[in-house]
Amino acid sequence: DEPGGVIGLTKVLLRAGKHAEARAQLDELRRTEWPERFDKTVERAVRELERYLPKRAEAGKEF
Questions:
Q1: Which of 3, 5, 27, 54 has a CA that sits 20 to 30 A from residue 38's CA?
Q2: Is the pLDDT assigned to residue 3 strictly greater than 70?
Q3: pTM for the whole structure
């Protein structure tokens, strides 16, 4: 399996303002045991995409 699909879906969800769903996809990215060659890709993507999420206290708000 490759993480590209989950990363792409997360980007689409963020653009659509679906923060809870995007957060769930990021959690899935973290939990999944990807082949070692994807370690850096997944770490970098999670870090980058998390910047676009509201803080947990604001998670229920739509922007």
A1: 54
A2: yes
A3: 0.83
